[in-house]
Amino acid sequence: MAVQVAVCGPAKCGQREWDLAHELGRLLAERGAVVICGGHGGVMAAVAAGARSRDGLVVGILPGPDRSGAGPDLSVAVATGLGQARNSVIVHSGDAVVVVGGSWGTLSELALAMRRGGVPVVQLGDGWRLVDAGGRQVPGVRHARTPAEALDLTGLWA
Amino acid sequence: MAVQVAVCGPAKCGQREWDLAHELGRLLAERGAVVICGGHGGVMAAVAAGARSRDGLVVGILPGPDRSGAGPDLSVAVATGLGQARNSVIVHSGDAVVVVGGSWGTLSELALAMRRGGVPVVQLGDGWRLVDAGGRQVPGVRHARTPAEALDLTGLWA
Amino acid sequence: MAVQVAVCGPAKCGQREWDLAHELGRLLAERGAVVICGGHGGVMAAVAAGARSRDGLVVGILPGPDRSGAGPDLSVAVATGLGQARNSVIVHSGDAVVVVGGSWGTLSELALAMRRGGVPVVQLGDGWRLVDAGGRQVPGVRHARTPAEALDLTGLWA
Amino acid sequence: MAVQVAVCGPAKCGQREWDLAHELGRLLAERGAVVICGGHGGVMAAVAAGARSRDGLVVGILPGPDRSGAGPDLSVAVATGLGQARNSVIVHSGDAVVVVGGSWGTLSELALAMRRGGVPVVQLGDGWRLVDAGGRQVPGVRHARTPAEALDLTGLWA
């Protein structure tokens, strides 16, 4: 089976996050990876559009109980009916997890991915950062400036 | 987006159920439908194998927290980590639900599909039947003898 | 920790199911068991009312993302946001599962409880019955005519 | 129905987090609030022990498919079988969410609570903090130094 990469990010995003996610989707498709995302707008739509521009396979894991609200670039829409508990499904389905941008939902996915353990978690671009009580950055998440660097940091094509 | 059909059945099945599910998978792929299944063996493996024999797209919705145990004919494996609660995800992701054979897990999927409402639910072959206290068959589920008839009864290609 | 018994049934029920569920709730509370139910109306409300009439502890496992719709006799409302996938949570939380009456949601709970395995599953009163292709009743579920007999059949107080 | 407060924190914690969570549990029980927690050790066990020391009601929402691993001070154990997706159930069941200490699981609960919206989210003691790309603290979470202050910040007893 093909490599699967979960890409998470806010349902509303700016141009910079859109561009990063779109290019990430393109690169993933070019390498034959399946993209797993939340299936809605913003970063989710951008990575889907990028992947489809290279005939990639994109699976949207939706929070609602049916396919309404699914973005136009999904190959498949999984309607979970689980609400935000679907975030756990997204991060368990990736061989690596890449997050783009900052939002509470995105943070929950980053945290669930780290909690899961055993898979690389990469933050692409300027998202939220975590510091402990002493002001030190909490270790564990890998940081990438470009989509190509993000893919390198997953280690999936090393 | 393509039509999606959820196909449910036991992880262990006899030759007759295997043949029905395999042919169902072939027919679904030939019509361009995405197959959604539980991703394990038996009927799930048969419908996946049938669909892949026609280059169809097959999504396995797994109960476990990673992709271990995924069948070889899946295009994508969604690792839910939800245990049997993933049965609800399967039935919400289909524009129709077809069940083949009888088991408690399969029955839960049939019941959750009927509970969901609004989508056709078809039983293909000899599965378990429901009777009320008066011995009358509980209405709602459609019954098909052949895979072709099952697809007709979904009404998706009418 | 106290014994926990999951009681499942339709959100709309007749007088007979109401009476059975209410008496079941009373008996469970008198024996010190915690009642786990779906937290809505019909059989769920009846078992909750019966248990509370004896100062029992009743937990409602709700499908929605907040406590709206919770019945008045619950001690605690767990808002899952999972939709019908919450049925799996209900049946996993009982040391035994008792179903009263017939509906698709109730059937899914009975089936998920049998699929779980290892816990007694009792049908109280006249619900739906399962027959295989040969017309024989599918074995596994225990059948009780009265709430007292249902408790006996759980084996929890043997 | 009583007020319900979700309390989240790591399964392993130091003395300071234990003391804060234990006192928080005591105060919640004294005010008649039901405590919702993850049902395991560390902060979860501390808040449960504190609440039970005042005869409070404590519900543990467990990740596993049965009650194994449930702490000794729970009044009720809800076995979800959902893995870490159960974190979403915890935060939806509270009228307020209080987190104590830092871990990836705890962070996921804080983030899911903020994503849910509409309920106060309080961080008690020195947990992880979030900063945006410019180094500014991300707003939204309320910070308390003592359990009494945490309860004040929920606004539930104003």
UniProtKB/TrEMBL annotation, chains A, B, C, D:
Species in which this protein is naturally found: Streptomyces glomeratus
Protein name: TIGR00725 family protein
Database matches in InterPro entries: CHP00725, LDcluster4, LOG_family_nucleotidases
Pfam families listed in its UniProt record: LDcluster4 (PF18306)
